[in-house]
Amino acid sequence: MQNSQLLEIAKDFGSPVYVYDANIIEAQYKRLTSAFNTVKQLKINYAVKALSNISVLKFMKQLGAGLDTVSIQEVHLGLAAGYKAKDIIFTPNGVSLLEIETVAKLGCQINIDNLSILEQFGTKHPETPVCIRINPHVMAGGNTNISVGHIDSKFGISIHQIPHILRIVENTKMNINGIHMHTGSDILDIDVFLYASEILFETAKNFKNLQFIDFGSGFKVPYKTGDIETNIEELGQKLSQRFNEFCKEYGKPLTLAFEPGKFLVSEAGQFLVNVNAVKQTTSTVFAQVDSGFNHLIRPMLYGSQHEIRNISNPEGRERFYSVVGYICETDTFANNRRITEINEGDILAFSNAGAYCYSMASNYNSRYRPAEVLVYNGQAHLIRKRETFEDIINNQVEIELTPKDKKKLVTK
């Protein structure tokens, strides 16, 4: 998407606005499948939580993806988008047994990461195929909040608790058809990933009726020019070879599954904002924009760096700015960032806004959530309307309360 087109989108649909390039999503999907093309049975389950717009889900389905879901609401979104239940895996954490049972009745693949829930579910539904999420105790990920495979993580069943798992499976006679792990997001060192994979292979040997092994995802994408990323091609070559060897050892072909989210959609997204004011203080020049962490929380939550470009003045002289939002708390997008000269009314574009941006947006300060636009082969399509005041108050219930000790104010 060229600057001219992004400026046209900001003009046509207003700002702030999320814009996604479907061609980049498709290229990323093909890049991943090509990296593992020597594996006979490969399954890519798109992580809905990254970007859950139903038009994006439908596009993923056309590419051939299944879905990775973490809530029953995401499951229903997938079904509404036309996915068959068998192509949806449900990997929740800390949800009720009732929610898991409800999703199982729909026919989705269940993934359980809790010994107690595993035993309860296996006792009541021994015939239902279940995948088990293992915690390999491997520290991986770009931030403590997105590192989910270490020993103190709430996710997964510890590899040290394998005997407990086997006891539950033996006692309930439940059907274990998959083994799963997810170590974290922004994984750069593929050797760490391969090390965790060996733990998963060793665990898989305990189960004789597996149909798939799910290696999660968390591949790092570049956030700025020259940034490093996961070498998917090298990982594909090494893991594919090892996976094919394991299938021979196991005695039957298995499906290799991944559940990428950020890898598929992050680089496809641009978030466009308008500069409300340029404010000079004693030490800083602030570019104040018509958004905040209510629309893009990742810089404040994870310390993530999104490249910011002034697409209204791309050839201007570079100066240093702190780009901040309009929320009544500190909501800094960038500190002392080199950006081409900014004037009030300019449009700034935040890169890597496809993953965990709209899906983590809120109505904090009673602000509206922005519109979403999907660009495919150069054509811009509105895929979510900008919210209005009616959306803010739609589910609120007004009641009238009169305090018991209400006193009349007396003006002297």
TrEMBL record:
It catalyses: meso-2,6-diaminopimelate + H(+) = L-lysine + CO2. It holds the Pfam family Orn_DAP_Arg_deC. Keywords: Amino-acid biosynthesis, Decarboxylase, Lyase, Lysine biosynthesis, Pyridoxal phosphate. The keyword Amino-acid biosynthesis applies. The keyword Chaperone does not apply. Pathway: Amino-acid biosynthesis; L-lysine biosynthesis via DAP pathway; L-lysine from DL-2,6-diaminopimelate: step 1/1. Residues 25-266 form the Orn/DAP/Arg decarboxylase 2 N-terminal domain. Transmembrane segments: none annotated. The modification N6-(pyridoxal phosphate)lysine is found at residue 49. Pyridoxal 5'-phosphate binds at residues 218, 356. One of its GO terms (molecular function) is diaminopimelate decarboxylase activity. HAMAP family: LysA (MF_02120). Specifically catalyzes the decarboxylation of meso-diaminopimelate (meso-DAP) to L-lysine. This is Diaminopimelate decarboxylase. It comes from Olleya sediminilitoris. The gene is lysA.
